[in-house]
What we know:
Chain A is an alpha/beta fold and 549 residues long. Helices cover 41% and strands 17% of the residues of chain A.
Amino acid sequence: xxxxxxxxxxxxxxxxxxxxxxxxxxxxxxxxxxxxxxxxxxxxxxxxxxxxxxxxxxxxxxxxxxxxxxxxxxxxxxxxxxxxxxxxxxxxxxxxxxxxxxxxxxxxxxxxxxxxxxxxxxxxxxxxxxxxxxxxxxxxxxxxxxxxxxxxxxxxxxxxxxxxxxxxxxxxxxxxxxxxxxxxxxxxxxxxxxxxxxxxxxxxxxxxxxxxxxxxxxxxxxxxxxxxxxxxxxxxxxxxxxxxxxxxxxxxxxxxxxxxxxxxxxxxxxxxxxxxxxxxxxxxxxxxxxxxxxxxxxxxxxxxxxxxxxxxxxxxxxxxxxxxxxxxxxxxxxxxxxxxxxxxxxxxxxxxxxxxxxxxxxxxxxxxxxxxxxxxxxxxxxxxxxxxxxxxxxxxxxxxxxxxxxxxxxxxxxxxxxxxxxxxxxxxxxxxxxxxxxxxxxxxxxxxxxxxxxxxxxxxxxxxxxxxxxxxxxxxxxxxxxxxxxxxxxxxxxxxxxxxxxxxxxxxxxxxxxxxxxxxxxxxxxxxxxxxxxxxxxxxxxxxxxxxx
Amino acid sequence: xxxxxxxxxxxxxxxxxxxxxxxxxxxxxxxxxxxxxxxxxxxxxxxxxxxxxxxxxxxxxxxxxxxxxxxxxxxxxxxxxxxxxxxxxxxxxxxxxxxxxxxxxxxxxxxxxxxxxxxxxxxxxxxxxxxxxxxxxxxxxxxxxxxxxxxxxxxxxxxxxxxxxxxxxxxxxxxxxxxxxxxxxxxxxx
Lengths: 549, 190
């Protein structure tokens, strides 16, 4: 079958064709389409799919399922792998029982990411888990299936690392499209095996040895794998390119524009690297361009390999390509011009002739936050510190609101606001959304109560995880597969965490919010105001659906 | 067609640009072209600028249109079309919706249109797509599909109307199908 698919849709198709049973994860950009699509098709395809409360829990759910014999996919954005890393590392030691692929979507240039411009390939070093790096939707499909095969063969999880320009790239994809319509969900069976599943010392040290042994075998496998390939160009050419991920496509295009035909070693494996293949590619070369986005991981490895293979080879990488921001064809053209001495073709382009002001993200029309943020701004005394968190509420930091004094990672506002509160006598209003509260806000809330600080926490509860495309969360009484479950009430959780000053209100009645802020801000303990009002986009959509039956 | 065709579609989050590009991609596949496109989701969609790259031809490598190499820029909002002028060269066709979605600091509409006329000259097609779709179909969000129809029927893009209509039928849910086909065909007669 051949169809135009988004990179992430190709991952879903590859996962289905690999015979997945269990899908978990947490939505983010550029990965959310994977879980969303499973939400639509899981039931009819005999798959179980969930949005977990965060990536750590999502990975752990998949570990439990794998140990019970189910084929699993975990999906998350770049920062998700930080969240789940605590369980990721021991998973490398225990290995999997049934195969597992972990999808991680990086976002070079931070198109939709606060926090940092993370290159998640680095986790290969920390976890010793194989990492595959696709460049196109076709490779997203092929590498997903291959990831499951590798996981099955070597009993390790496999990380499929994508980037925005791969995950959100559309192109024709050839795929099997196995008919799973009649498939019924597979029931697993947990067979006790503490020898494999418990990392208690001294056994943990043996496990490390087992992992290193597996990696040696996977290295031998990678040497022969078709996803590491030399293409184009005369292999005898003194200049060559080693590329990975989307950079491979830019390098091909750049050569086409420049009329160059250099050999490219395209690496589908980032970990383990096919070192012999790389060594033999380098051997006859005077110059090598390493085309990779973000961190110079590959470049460092290749410099190391070239010391043995051909110490005279000059390795070019971050000295001709930027380490910050995504690459593109123009950047690779300039790098190749430096390497080959060939003139870079001119990019004759028009100019707008005037400076165009930046159109930043803003709250949607009718968003209940329009009633909350201006009220907070109006009521807060001068000098109030504003804590910010991840989600639609990040827009608090932009004009016309401009009430955000720090923004870090999911749930971080809780901990940082506590720290500021303990360190100073200043007033703090700390803003967080409902999804982020469930994801990782709760331990920070407990800590603030336990260690006696007094931020005023305002939860912007819009009844859904909105920013990433309206995914259900534990506060709204619905799961990814549409099951109706009990709504977890943030006020009840706060009460159970020991918060005494709690107010739940509908922000559209603004005077109430004003009074609540004035009442709570002078308090000596943690206070929480929960502004509960459905996301305007969701409200409109539900209304439309109701009208259309 | 002996060289690849490069398109930039630009506008503001929420204007239905992703649907537009899926239709475009499928139409290209129907005609037997290789196709690649690149889009952005997430934060950039919350009322921010959206830019989509789409390229088709015999063999496409990069999903991104290099600067200065666009054959066609479809702007669903006029200032956004101007913003992406550096993807254009002196031959690039600008197909622009005469629509201004202002925000604090937005350039005045007449200044935007003057600049567009200055840089694109006779290659500028300024069309009141949103207004026409609102009047004819009571759905402004169809302006993208209308512009795609305009591009096809005025030969600004080397695709056949039949292929695009087939793609629309494949991709658009049944209850919105009729209005999408109407929007696409509106430019046929104008």
